[in-house]
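User: We ran a pulldown and think these components assemble together. Before we commit to crystallization trials, I'd like a predicted model of the whole complex to look at. Sequences follow.
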Amino acid sequence: MTVDDYALTGNEKQGLYKAIFSRRDVRSHFVDKQIPNDVLARILNAAHHAPSVGFSQPWNFILIRDRLTRQKVKESFLRERERSTAMLDSDTDRQKKYSSLKLEGILESAVNICVTYDPTRFGPFVLGRTSIEETGVYSVACAVQNLWLAARAEGVGVGWVSILANSDLEKILAIPAHVKPVAYLCLGYVGEFSDRPDLERAGWLPRMGLSEVVCYEKWGSYDPSGIWSDFSDGVSKVNEKIHEDNI
Amino acid sequence: MTVDDYALTGNEKQGLYKAIFSRRDVRSHFVDKQIPNDVLARILNAAHHAPSVGFSQPWNFILIRDRLTRQKVKESFLRERERSTAMLDSDTDRQKKYSSLKLEGILESAVNICVTYDPTRFGPFVLGRTSIEETGVYSVACAVQNLWLAARAEGVGVGWVSILANSDLEKILAIPAHVKPVAYLCLGYVGEFSDRPDLERAGWLPRMGLSEVVCYEKWGSYDPSGIWSDFSDGVSKVNEKIHEDNI
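Assistant: Here's a predicted model for the assembly, 494 residues in total across the polymer chains.
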């Protein structure tokens, strides 16, 4: 076998890129339909196969359907949104726009999932976490991304609700002091996946060009030169392609 | 269109799952072959299309080929590994195993990428980051996972080197004080992708069962009952399937 044989086939590769480019943070368009057990299990299994520092697998997935629990989480959201709205008192245009955005689907979605980080798992010596402690929680964020992509592949929308107080989540979900809530997700089938992120469509912020976030050899060096001089072509081409295909 | 139409086709879905289950943290088996510009650009573009809190896109990707730079990073690794080896002085069996593991491919890989987090991007008010500050850095970790999966789809191996001092990286790569290094990645074509994670194969730690990380309605409640009573079937079935197919 040559090394190229390890690439996925054209169709398979297309599937991965389609999931990545058409994944959306969903807050609206949830429809009233349960997620079958096998579909939900596949989505969770994808999350569980994320990379983790020292193979520590430090995540838990709390599945929530209970109405009362969700109502309490929604109340936390409402309090936190009010607090953050006040931060924009000096910028009424942005404040008005912010207030008009739908930012969660806690009650309308089929299931909520709180993803947590347990730093004590297989510890205290976790291989590879001895120099940079945060790699533990980064592993959990990688698991969230796997979950999100698998859900997209299954036609299930996911919305990450970050306007919440972790202290509320800890109380509502009986999360012990040593465990950290990382993500609160709302999952459900949706009537549509938007062609662009909601915040881009609403004109909140623009999509940056790839060339604006790639540096060469050191931070802040955005101008490809030397061995990188022909690389900027690749970057601009792939950018155009995305805008053409809009996948 | 029915809501099911938003799912990927069978082949596309298979591609996403194949990337997720066969992705490996690669430290060995790098072969001497450059990554073509268009392939590297696609991998970076996948990373750039990760979710980000408030659409803040707070990442940068520093591409590193320079030999001297890599040599300095390797020296940081060697110092940090020595420090962490000493932590196992009271457990000589594990210490011996730890010392026998290959934990990085800094010099053998085709390119190194340092992924950083810039909390000032589009700030100071970042929508959705007002209650949980860490969601900014979680976005960057999600970008790393997109990068990793796209690389796998392209047949390119990725190894995350976490045994490094961030203070060394900041100095070597001229990263300013307000920017945080999140991941140091080594990319290259490989002679093989192992069927299981290296640390699982080496007997360092076992793969946990999915049912060990899924809780119902609140933290620590591992026993599905009530509306969840038929869900454990789904969990155990998907577990078996993974072990059979080994994808």
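The mean pLDDT of chain A is 94. That may be worth checking against your pulldown data before setting up trials.

User: Thanks, that helps.
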